[in-house]
Structures are given as C-alpha cells and as structure tokens.
Specification:
The complex is a heterodimer. Helix content of chain A is 6%, strand content 56%. Chain A has 6 helices and 43 strands. In chain A, the strands form 8 sheets. Chain A has a 22-stranded antiparallel barrel, surrounded by 4 helices. In chain A, strands 3-9-10-7-8 form a 5-stranded mixed sheet. In chain A, strands 28-29-33-32 form a 4-stranded mixed sheet. In chain A, strand 41 and strand 42 form a beta hairpin. Chain A is globular, with a radius of gyration of 26 Å. Chain B is of the alpha/beta class. Chain B has 2 domains: 160 residues, Rossmann fold (3-Layer(aba) Sandwich); 135 residues, Rossmann fold (3-Layer(aba) Sandwich), CATH 3.40.50.1400. In chain B, strands 2-1-3-4-9 form a 5-stranded mixed sheet, sandwiched between helices. In chain B, strands 6-5-7-8 form a 4-stranded parallel sheet, with helices on both faces. In chain B, helix 9 links the parallel strand 5 and strand 6. In chain B, helix 2 packs across helix 5 and helix 5 runs parallel beside helix 6. The chains are: A mainly beta, B alpha/beta. Chains A and B meet through strand 16, strand 17, strand 18, strand 19 and strand 20 of A and helix 1, helix 2, helix 4, helix 6 and helix 11 of B.
Chain lengths: 725, 372
C-alpha cells in the first residue's frame, strides 16, 4: 500500500469516526446453518435441538489465539484451567471426560490425566463452532454427557488454488503460525495445513508453599514454555457425480519445557520435560443416494503418545522384561535415564469405523441411522500393571425428525451401545420444538451411558505439581456411568434482537471422579516406592463411582443489533452441583466438591465492523469475560475474576480480488488483572496480565475448481457434517 | 480407472506415513543400567583408592527433598565415619523421586544421592573385604524388606550379565562371613524398644516433667503392614510410659493409632489439658513432621491446617488438633530452627550405630551363579 493510500485511509477513518458511513449487509446469524444437534442441516433458528453457535464473524473479530481463549471468551458456558498437560475444560459442571470435541464431526482423540490438548485445534482454521449441551445427540455418542463441541473447519473446495499465511505474535514470545495450501486438479482437491504455536510461558508469582514455609524464590511458572506444530493433509476425490471419497492424515507434536534452574528440590526442580506426539489417518466417502438422501462411511485411526524427555539423570521405576536382563528379568527396577533420552509414558491408540445414512421419508420425517465401532488400546509399560490395556465399544443408532404439525417438530433417537466389559445399554433421547412466530420453545431429555475409560480402569501415575505430589490410580472395580439430561428453553429470534434462556438438570448415576483416598485403599506394593517412611507427602487419589451427582443451571444468551454495523452480545451461565461419595472409613455419605465448579460465569462483547472504502474494513471487538470463585477439593479455591479485551481488525484489499490482507491488533486483559495466589493453590485464571498481540494474514485465491461445478448441482441440504462449504 | 488407482495410492500413502512419523527414540534400559553401574563403580573405586580403606558401610534411607534433612544425613554420615574409622561410608536413597530432585538443584545446592542397588554393586566391584549394610528405617516394615532383597540380590550376583561381579569375590565375602545387615531402629522389642525409650526420655525428660510428650510415627495401613511391625509403636509407648506416664506414641497411617486415638488415651489417663510437646518419630523431619505434625505452628498458617467441620481429618495437623482440644501444643526446634528427626538425636543415632556394629553376618545369602 502506498503512503498516499494510507493517508486517504486515515482521513477516511477520522471522517467517519464511529458513525456508520456505509450500509452493512444484513448479518448472517439469522441464516446460520447448524448440523450438530441432529446430524442434519437446519437453520439455526429452526434447529430441533438447542444449539449455541460461535459464528465466523465472532471468531474473526475476537482474534483468539487458541480454542481455550475462544470458548472461554465468547460463551459463558465454559471454564478452563490451563495446565502442563493440556486444558482442564468444564462445561455444565462436568470435565473433559464428558465433553466430546469433534472436528468436522470426527472425535478428537487423546487425553492425559483427563486433560485435552487443545493445541491440536488450529484457531485460524475454524469456520464456526457449534455447541450442543447434554447427552442429547443420538449420533455423537451417549458418553458426551456434558455436551458436544463441533468445530467446523474452513473449506476451500471451490478454489482452484488457495494460499494463506497467518502469523500472530504476542507478549511472552507468543507465536501462532498458520499456513494453508489448497488446490483443485480435475476431480481431486487437496488441502494442506500447517500450524505452529509457541509461548515462553510466564510466572505470576514467585511465592510457593513448600517445605513447611512460604518460599519467595520459586522458579515454577504459571504456564510453562511450550512449542507445538501440526501438519495435516486432506485429499478429496469426486469419483462420480454422486460419490465422493477422501483421505486425510495429520502429524502433531508438542514439547513442554519446565524450569531447569530451580533451587528447591521439594518443589521447583524437574529432571524431565514433557512431549506429545499425535498422528491420525482417515479414509471415507459419501454416496448421495438421490438428491437428498446420503450414506457416509468413515474409518479413522488416531495415536496420542506421551513421553518424558530427560534433562538430567532420572531414575524411572520400570519392570524389566526380557532375556537380556538376565537375573533381573521380571523385576521392577530403578533405571536411570539420562539427559537427551526419552521414555514413553503412554500411547493411546484408537480405531473407529462409522457408517451413517440420512433418508428423507414421506410425511415430513427425516430418518438418520448408523453404526459405529471403536477400539481403544493403551500402551503404558510404566503406568499399568500389565503394560497395556484395551477396550471396544459398538453402537447402533436411529433418529427420526418428525414435523408433526406445522409448528411442532419432534425428534426422537435411540442409541444402543455394546461395550466389551460392561455389556449392552439402550439410551433414548427425545426433543420437541414449538415454533410460535419468532419464538421457539424447546424441551429435551437425553439419556447418557459412559463406560469407564481404559485409563480410569488401569492407569496409574505419580503426578508431581511443584510441591504437591499426587499418586493417581485407576480402579478396576468401577461401574459404568449413566445420566439423564433434561432441558427446557425459550428462544426469541427477531430481526435485531435474539435471546435465549435454557435451564437444565443433568443427573448422573455412578459418576466417576478422581477423589482423595486413604493410602490403605491402594494395593500394597504399588506405592511403597513413593510413600516410604514418610519423609515425602504424597496424596493418594483414586477413580471412584460417586453415589450420586447432579449438575443444574441456566444459560442465557442475548444479542442486539444496535445498527447494521454494531452488535452487542451477552452471555451468562449459572451452575450448581451436588455430588456425594460413600466414605468407607467413616461409613457415611460425604458431599464432594466437583473440581473447578463456579456458580457464575459471564461474557459480553460489542462488535463493530465498518467498510470505509472498498479496500478497507475496520472491525472492533470490545469484550469481557468473568467468573465467580471456582471450587476445588484440594489446594484451595480459585478467585473470581473479570477481564477486558479489545481487538481491532483491518481488512485490506477488495473482497473480489485474488489477494487479500488482514491486520489485527489487540490487547487482552486491559486492566492488567493477574491472580498472584501462591503456588500450589488454585488460580481463578492463569492470565499473564495485560498482553498485546498482532496478526498479519495474506490470502490468495485463484479461479474455480473444476469439481465445484459438479458440487453445485448437489443439494446442499442433503446431510453430513463434512459437507459444509 | 487410472485416477482411482492414484487416489487409492494417495490414501494409502497418508495412512502409512502417519505411523512412520511417530516411531520413537526410546533408549535401551540395559545400556542405561550397565552405564549407571559403571558410574557408581568409578565413584566408589575413586573413594576406595583415596582412602585406602578396606571396609564399607552402606546406609540406606528412604530419602528426602528437604534441606534440613540433607544436613541430617550429612551429620549421620560423619558420625558413622567416626564410629567406623576403617570404613568408607556411603549413603543411599531408596526413593527415586528424592534422588532425582535432590540431584538436579541449582549449582552448589545439588546433592547427588545414589540408589542402593547400584551403590552396592559398586562396593562389590571395588572388592571391599567387609561390607555393612544398615537400614535407616524406624520399624522393620516393607521398606526394610526391600533392603534385605537388595543385599540378597547382591550376594547372588543378580545383575545383568555384562555387569556381573566377580563371583569368587562374593564367595569369599560369604566364606569370610564379611557381609553384615544392620537392622532397623525398633527391630527388637526386647532390647531396641526399651533402649530407644531410654534415649528419648534422656532427650525429653524435661518436657515430660512439664506436660505430655507425643511422638508422631508413620505407621502403615493394615494391608501394608505385612510384617506386623506397627506393633512397635504400641510397644514403644508402653516402654516410655513405664518411665513416665506423660509419653504417648501415635502415627499418621496406623489404624487405631491416629491423633484422635492418642487424644483418647491421654484423656483416659486424665491428661485433659496443659502443654503437649510434639516430636517426629521418623528418621528425619520432612513433610510429615512439618505439615502433619507441626502445621499451624506459625499463627499465620493456622487456616491451612485446620478444618473445624472435620476435626479428625488427615488434613488437620496434630498441632491444630491438640490446640483445638484445649491443649497448648509446642514444637521444640533444633539449632537449625526445624523440628528434629531421630537421626539428629545423638543417643538414638547411637542405637543405629550399635545395630551396625553388632550386625549379624547375613547367612545363606550367597549362592553361586555357576552351580556345579
């Protein structure tokens, strides 16, 4: 851009101020199409199952660097605490294990200690996010007791050539790099994505409670330094007019560096870093039986491996097996690992096969049906009694959407689950929606069924968090969990104003939670190496079924379009939980805190977008998010907080041109709020205080893909979460 | 058709590439074990060469990450060097975590501790003519069993083939009756328990004259108490009370001998209020002594160690528990301003040293690795 043009732009900005000086297009929210609740496409306002959407516009103006930031900042439903291993996420009072994260309808794989590594999700490749709460969907498994987050990625099928580079840089050396290359070649389209995320991490406090005193020079960070990158490739092939196939694969790795210069062996000295390696491969296809009906088939394999990378001599207690060990064959032995060496801690692999069909039947019925097979394999020589464990689950489901009356839709579903260890279970779901003018009244009930995971049954490990050390152990006597999720809500979608209020109760039976137990409950021998003569203090924790657990709350969302360019959004979530565990030591029922629960969470934003010239569009997003106190079983409660953020976007270049530029400048945490609670006590938020960031994107689009002409002929309302364009 | 072929090939390429990407660089434990033997061997060989001594004492403690404990281990080593002038004294930790963390501290503060199995191999490789292995455990429990297993493995040359010791040397140790196993502090109820009671009384009789003196041992849950060693705490209390009825012995983990059980026995004995002096009955004063026993000693920390809704909770310290039960708890600090561990009481340390001096030859431990 020349200096002259830049001057013109500045003058134009000054002249217009915040007044609207051009007519904006009617916002697309009214016409938003969602797929997650039923697996079939619906306009958001007509979706039979209550669906919350984070739109492209919200994502574009917010400038989130990660999925945590996006979900935490743009809805009030989620709470996060970032840890070494990933993100502890919470939705409706329930943690990661109960939240199903999908990328284009496919389950994200892998957790470490119940935390998901959300670094797998490239924030710059998200088209929109759909959230369905409770075990309401027959399609996505009854184990999604808290809900489903479906991340719809950007597609570029219609471009003959597509190139993108996005680079974001922020405080604490925070780098987010995204590159996309897409092309269409005859019937073949290819999309390659690369992303990299890095931060140096930060330290909110040097105070740490350890060695019976308050240390003032702890080197432990609030967030450790990390780097991850991912390379993903997807190939689509239009075999025939009504048959398309795809193959995709990805590789991901994350390296987490912990402080190497600590001086207190009891809390800030580490002898190893952490590393993850993920890989995935999938193949599948879709057959459009006729204009509307379709059948899809997917097979995918995922691997999530977790390593220690040693930085100093570290004795690892491991079972020696093999002739090469001679006299030591079969013994548990302390094996030293040296700087530069690595050791696998766990490798979770999953194979899934899914077949699904959607058929539009007479009398306003839409029938979906499908089958799913899932095999899980855990290889963890140091962390399971037998070195490995496995499990499989098969499921079949059917769902009918019936427009009973012009104003009444009833959607019913059944999901039959067969688990290798825990047998057969049928889970029904039903939801109804009445359309009264601009009002939608919805009510639903969904049953959930979740068998203990391989990790909950068999995995055990020592979790060292600074001066707090926990010995976490699986429990082979666990029972499967069940849930009944009830919700009812009213939604109003007018031209300028939309609002919804939804209340829910989620009653869980045999909910599995990691809870403190007396050492005596852990099999003898397992912990001897850790508990010893008592010079160290290790808290034993075990997975247990709770007697009962209930989470209930109200979610509210409102959006008001003040002008065609200025929109105000607000979101509030109230939550309460009630859970009990039978205390075998005292023979009584004990109330248990569900870790991370907060009663009140909120977020709000003012979004302004204005095109000053055909070549320049400004976007402003002023937002806030907050939470009341968060409750925990160990190490104190997290303080309530409220954080403000301002992001500006600058779109440069005409939208009909091949080359587009975009600049984003933003400040997060405007008032520099920082929770400096000493370690190891819980923080309400890990925010580093005020941070600034800048993002620069270049996009290049060239021509039309040949295949797109054929695609245009298809009925877009057919079905399938991966048919989004 | 050609396109289908290339498409299928592309799919296969993607599917096959992913696992290849993830091949990992795990190292071979055999090499690491052998190399760790070598490192220990070298260190011990250097020590033997420098001292010219022909006897070795190997002390086996659980370990710690507390700096006051490192000082206690240093002092213990010195005391042993004085008691065994003809021996090189080595100290080892059986806890991996303690070794790992202690050895990775900042320059100047890093402490290298060694694992008993590796250190004993090195002592054998250096061919000391007399070896004492002394357990620094308080009771003969599971930890002590691990020490016994370690010595037996040594005498049976139970190592990886490439790291075998000279079998003739082990045979000679056996023939010369030159491998000794020192027993834990409270091993013998007839002699050790009264002796330790006597030493504790010598240290704390002034306190016992003024109020209750309560010792906090560790103890084991029932399913861990394989050697029924928990009973030593009860026996010690009996021996102490024979001297002065103001002594009590409780534990952190032994069923029916928690802080509330100590309180019940105190009340039964009519000791309903007054001063209560708290002491750790553990070899060193680490986490349990500071938190479970003395937690809340500094008034600003009181809230951390007291939950009134559940007074008997494990989270509540002894200090706060007795304070909230009408007593005046006191924690006597050493010159280092820390609670003391048993190794820091000279009379008690001497019981351990005497155990080493009187240690019995470990009979039947040697079995030739090449039986005829």
């Amino acid at each position: 851009m020349t200096a002259k043009r830049l001057t013109a732009l500045i003058v134009a900005t000054a002249a217009c101020g915040t007044m609207a000086c051009a007519q904006g297009k009617v916002d697309g929210i009214l016409h938003e199409v969602v797929v997650t609740g039923t697996g079939t496409q619906h306009l958001l306002k007509d979706a039979p199952v209550q669906t919350e959407v984070i739109s492209r516009k919200m994502l574009d103006t917010y400038g989130g660097k990660s999925l945590e930031e996006i979900l935490g900042g743009l809805t009030a439903s989620f709470a996060f605490s970032e840890g070494d291993m990933g993100s502890q996420m919470q939705l409706g009072g329930l943690g990661n294990a109960y939240i199903l994260i999908l990328i284009d309808g496919k389950r994200v794989h892998g957790d470490v200690g119940g935390e998901n590594d959300l670094g797998l999700i490239d924030p710059h490749n998200i088209e929109r996010i759909e959230i369905v709460k409770g075990a309401q969907s027959a399609l996505y498994g009854s184990d999604a007791m808290a809900g489903v987050i479906n991340i719809i990625t950007k597609k570029h099928h219609d471009d003959a050539l597509y190139l993108e580079n996005t680079t974001r840089y922020g405080s604490y050396n925070d780098v987010r790099q995204h590159n996309g290359v897409g092309f269409g070649l005859g019937r073949l389209t290819s999309m390659t994505n690369f992303q990299l995320q890095h931060t140096d991490g930060w330290q909110n406090t040097r105070m740490e409670r350890a060695e019976g005193q308050t240390l003032t020079d702890s080197r432990n960070k609030t967030l450790n330094k990390y780097t991850n990158y991912q390379l993903a490739e997807r190939l689509d092939y239009q075999l025939a007019k009504d048959l398309s196939l795809y193959a995709e694969g990805s590789y991901y790795t994350k390296q987490i560096n912990r402080p190497q210069n600590g001086s207190h062996p009891s809390c800030d000295v580490y002898t190893y870093d952490l590393r993850y390696r993920n890989a995935s491969a999938a193949v599948g296809g879709k057959w459009n039986v006729n204009k509307r009906d379709a059948v899809t088939l997917d097979v995918d394999w995922n691997k999530h491996a977790y390593y220690y990378d040693y930085t100093a001599r570290t004795y690892e207690y491991m079972k020696l097996e093999g002739e090469e060990y001679g006299e030591l064959n079969g013994e548990w032995y302390s094996v030293p690992m040296y700087r530069g060496q690595s050791k696998l801690q766990s490798d979770q692999q999953r194979l899934m096969a899914q077949a699904k069909g959607v058929f539009y039947l007479p009398h306003d019925n839409t029938l979906s049906g499908g089958m799913e097979f899932r095999y899980d394999y855990l290889n963890a020589p140091l962390r399971t009694a037998n070195g490995s464990a496995s499990d499989w689950t098969a499921a079949a489901y059917v769902q009918d959407e019936f427009n009973m009356l012009q104003w009444l839709n009833v959607t019913g579903g059944l999901r039959l689950v067969q688990n290798h260890n825990f047998g057969l279970r049928l889970t029904p779901k039903i939801s109804a929606m009445a359309s009264l003018g601009d009002f939608r009244i919805r009510a639903g009930w969904g049953q959930g069924f979740k068998t203990p995971t391989v990790k909950e049954l068999h995995y055990r490990y020592l979790h060292v968090m600074g001066s707090s050390t926990f010995f976490n152990i699986g429990n082979i006597n666990l029972d499967p969990q069940g849930s009944n999720h009830y919700n009812a809500g009213v939604e109003y979608r007018g031209r300028k104003f939309t609002a919804s209020v939804t209340g829910y109760i989620n009653k869980l039976t045999d909910m599995i939670a990691l809870v403190n137990v007396p050492v005596g409950e852990i099999p003898a021998g397992v912990t001897t190496a850790y508990l010893g003569d008592g010079s160290g203090n290790v808290q034993a924790r075990m997975y247990k079924n709770m007697e009962d657990a209930k989470t209930y709350g109200v979610d509210m969302n409102a959006s008001y379009k003040l002008t065609s360019e200025l929109t105000l959004n607000a979101s509030y979530s109230y939550l309460d939980t009630d859970a009990h565990l039978y205390d075998t030591q005292h023979n009584r029922l004990e109330k248990v805190t569900i870790d991370g629960m907060a009663h009140h969470k909120w977020s709000a934003s003012a979004v302004y977008q204005h095109r000053f010239t055909p070549k320049y569009r400004l976007g402003l997003n002023l937002s806030t998010r907050g939470s009341s106190e968060r409750f925990y079983q160990n190490n104190g409660n997290g303080k309530g907080f409220q954080i403000w953020r301002l992001n500006t976007t600058h779109d440069l270049g005409r939208t009909d041109r091949k080359l587009l530029y975009r600049l984003e400048l933003g400040v997060d945490n405007l008032l520099n709020y920082r929770d400096r609670t000493m370690r190891p006590y819980h923080l309400g938020t890990t925010t580093a205080g005020t941070t600034v960031f800048a993002t620069f994107s270049i996009k290049f689009k060239q021509g039309k893909a040949l295949a797109s002409a054929e695609k245009k002929g298809r009925d877009k309302a057919s079905s399938g979460e991966d048919s989004e364009e | 058709m050609k396109k289908i072929k290339s498409f299928v090939l592309a799919m296969l390429a993607v599917a096959l590439a992913a696992p290849v990407f993830t091949s990992c660089n795990d190292d071979d434990p055999v090499n690491n074990i052998v190399s760790e033997y070598s490192k220990n061997d070298e260190m011990v060989a250097n020590q033997k060469k420098a001292s010219g001594k022909n006897e070795a004492v190997l002390l086996v403690a659980f370990g710690s990450t507390w700096s006051n404990s490192f000082a206690a281990f240093d002092a213990t080593k010195k005391a042993y060097e004085k008691a065994f002038p003809n021996a090189d004294v080595y100290i080892s930790f059986s806890s991996d975590i303690c070794i790992n963390r202690a050895s990775a501290g900042e320059n100047g503060e890093a402490r290298d501790y060694y694992e008993p199995r590796y250190l004993l191999h090195a002592i054998g490789a250096a061919k000391y003519s007399k070896i004492y292995v002394q357990s620094l455990q308080v009771i003969p429990g599971e930890e002590f069993a691990n020490v016994v297993a370690c010595v037996k493995k040594f005498m049976n040359n139970g190592y990886i083939a490439s790291a075998h010791l000279d079998d003739a040397y082990l045979k000679k140790l056996d023939e010369d009756k030159a491998i000794f196993l020192g027993l834990p502090l409270l091993n013998d109820p007839e002699n050790d328990v009264p002796e330790v009671a006597k030493q504790l009384d010598a240290e704390y009789k002034n306190e016992a004259a003024k109020g209750v003196v309560a010792f906090m041992g560790h103890g084991n849950p029932d399913n861990y108490d394989t050697f029924k060693a928990n009973i030593r705490y009860t026996q010690l209390e009996e021996a102490l009370q024979a001297i002065n009825s103001n002594y009590f012995v409780g534990t952190v983990d032994m069923p029916d001998n928690y802080k509330q059980d100590v309180l019940a026995r105190m009340k039964e004995a009519g000791k309903n209020s007054g001063d209560i002096y708290l002491h750790a009955l553990m070899s060193i004063a680490g986490d349990h002594a500071h938190n479970d026993m003395a937690g809340g000693m500094n008034p600003e920390d009181e809230d951390e160690y007291w939950d009134a809704s559940e007074p008997e909770s494990e989270e509540n310290s002894w200090f706060m528990y007795f304070k909230n039960n009408e007593y005046t708890p006191k924690v006597t600090l050493g010159t280092n301003k820390e609670p003391l561990g048993l190794l820091e009481i000279p009379g008690v340390l001497n019981v351990w040293i005497e155990h080493t001096k009187k240690a019995a030859f470990l009979e039947d431990a040697y079995h030739s690795m090449n039986p005829e």
